[in-house]
Each structure stands twice: as structure tokens, then as C-alpha cells.
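WARN  no MSA supplied for this record, continuing single-sequence
INFO  ligand: adenosine-5'-triphosphate
INFO  echoing inputs
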Amino acid sequence: MLPRRGPASGGTAVLTGTPQTMILSRIRLGNFRNHAATAIELGGGINAFLGDNGQGKTNILEAVSYLSLTKSFYASGDSEAIEIGTGGFDVEGVLVSDAGVQHQVSVTCARLPQAKRFLINGSPPERLAAVIGRFPVVVLSPEKGPITFGGPGERRKFMDLALSQVSGAYLEEILEYRKALRQRNRILTNNRAKGFLPPGVIEPWTESLVAYGSRVAHRRAMFVTDLRSHIVSAYRTIMPEAETPDIAYVCGFAAGEGADARAYAASLSADLETRSTEERRRGLTLAGPHRDDLLLTINGMNVQRFASHGQHKTLLVAMKIAEYSYMQERHNETPMLLLDDVFSELDKGRVHRILSFAAGLGQVMITATEGTVFGSSIAWGRQNRRFIVERGTCRQET
Ligand SMILES: Nc1ncnc2c1ncn2[C@@H]1O[C@H](COP(=O)(O)OP(=O)(O)OP(=O)(O)O)[C@@H](O)[C@H]1O
Ligand SMILES: [Mg+2]
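INFO  complex generated
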């Protein structure tokens, strides 16, 4: 079984003691998007994928996200990733730990009947969710923009993805929470239609909602507390001007600074009690972490309402760098950083600062249309490699 990297915060830690860094040394894509058969030997530092638009650079990063998260980092279905005209894709990766131990991971997806299978060293994991966090990634791409300008759901996704990768317990809790929420909403909708709620039907789900919802909120609150200082310093790294971003956790049943999960449970329970008549009338669960948000500000001003385009972009990069630093410092995990198409969006100064930052990290995969963005800041060789991507093929530049 592939060990979780470093001591996880509860849940499925398999390996304790010395944290390890896992390097993706090889990846193979078969019938994945426009890659019929592509094999890549990666370096342990910066891996740059260069090529014109539409050649298949992003697709390579997407394949890596399948190995890490079991799915695409875009909101796209599995069958869309299958090369048109073929029956299914297979993506395979070889991970090498600090100690030199190799692990083979693979994901295959058939079109009809649609079936996705994951194998770690030849054996299926007990559940697909158990794969998450074993080879963590942080993704930065223009598609992540809605984190700063979109609706609250985008920011909840940001928290969920970061936390699920570092804490198996969180992943478990959020999945159980969503289940309780679905069941409870179904009961409330039925009740509204029929005007009758049999006794004892909703209570177990309310209990479950409170138990898991309070733990989810508590972990999110701690995450945001940790993330704050990282965001400020990351923002300064990319934009040395006198702007100070901040982030705050917005929870409808907040239990105050430093509150424990039990305090969140009491508060959520009380909220549900207060709103029970309204819930029955509207057929909907009206309290819980599915309504949380993050308040993002720059110099005290609400980002969603007042930030410029450039401030949005800088804050997004800062949040992603902060997520990376959080995983590294708080959980001893060194994630893979996937930077898709970030340079076309930013000015030279910022690109340079992000690259200097990335050069000091672990393994990074970057896509760009022009190799010139790298200037002379990277020493290419064994560790840092350049690849040319062309019509669904990829070869290392020598
Ligand atoms: N399921 C699929 N089967 C075959 N080809 C696909 C599939 N999905 C996408 N493609 C092709 O993949 C190509 C896009 O690849 P990708 O998004 O990786 O390009 P890119 O190199 O990142 O380009 P850009 O620089 O514009 O971001 C397009 O040519 C598209 O037609
Ligand atoms: Mg792309």
C-alpha cells in the first residue's frame, strides 16, 4: 500500500516518523484526451511543458491530477477525458520516495459501461477516496479564478480540497456530512410535499449532520487560522507593494475564536432548533457548513466587490502558495505543484517572482506556450527539464 506522506492529521496514516517526499518519476498516458501513447520521464524539480495552444500540455497535468485526486482538476466528467474514438484511457505513474522505494499507481477508465479503476502496486484501494492525500497536489490555473471572484461554493471547494489531502479524517467527515445533508434534505422535501413528517425519521440525520458538520467547521476554522499568515507572506513575495490581504472564515454557527468541535456542535444544534419551522416550510436544511464562506479582503476591502483584476490574480496565486506552504509546514507533506498557463495572465515581474519561488520547492510541473518566460532563471538539466508538447506527443528537449 502506498503510504500517506508524512504524519497525517488523523485518519489513514500508514507511515509515521520521518516525512517523505514522493517524486513522480514517470507517467504514461494511454488514450487520454489527445495523447494516444505518451510516456514522460520527469525531473525532481521544475518540469516545463512547452508548446503552441491546443497541443496537449494541460492534458498532461490533468492526467497527473487523476493519479493524485482520482479525477480531473477541472469540472469535467471522466468520459470526456477518454480519447475520442477509443474505448477508454489508462494513466500510469511511478512514484519514488526519498528512501528510493517505488510505487506504481494507475487509473483506467472505460467508456461503456463507464467504470473507473484505481490500482496501487497492482491492488485496488479499499475505496477510491482512500487514494486522496497519498500523493498531494496543489493546482494553480486560470480556471481556479472563481476562488476569489466566484460564489461561496468555490471557496468551500478550495478548503475541502486542501483539507482532504492533508487529513483523511476531514475527507471522511465531509463525505459523511454530505450524505447526512442529502438525506435530511430529501426528508424535508418529502415532508413539504406530503405535509407530514413521521416522528423519528429526521432526528438521526440531524444528529449525524451536527456531529460531522461541527467537526468540518472546526477543522476549517483551524485551517483558515493557519493559512492567514501564509497568505500575507505569499502575497508579499509576488507583489512587494504595501497591500495586505486577509482571510476570515465565515460560518453561520461560528462558536468564537479558538472554540472546539463541541462548541461548534452546540451552536449548530441550537441553530437547527431555531430554524426547524422554517426548514419544514422550505423543505431545506438551513444551517451547517454547506453554507460557509471565506471573506477575502485586501487592505480591509472586500475582494469580491472592490478588487482590481490584477489584485484578484495576485491573491489567487498567494492563496495557492499559502496552501502549498500550509501542507508543507503543518503536515510535512511536499505536494506536487501544478502551474497551468499562469504566465499568460501575469506581468513579467510577477512571473519572475513566482518562478524564483517555484525553483525553491519540490517537484513542479509548468505549462507555457513560450520557453522565453523562464529567461535564464532556471538551470536546465537532470533535475529541471523542458519538454516539447506537439499534437498529443511529448519529448524532452535536449
Ligand atoms: N477526449 C478527447 N479526445 C481527443 N482529443 C481531445 C479530447 N479532449 C481534448 N482533446 C484535444 O486536446 C487538445 C487540447 O489540449 P490541451 O488543453 O492540453 O492544450 P494546451 O496545450 O494546454 O493548449 P493551451 O496552450 O491552449 O492551453 C485539443 O486539440 C483538443 O481537441
Ligand atoms: Mg492549456
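Residues 244 and 274 are 38 Å apart (CA to CA).
INFO  checksum written, moving to next record
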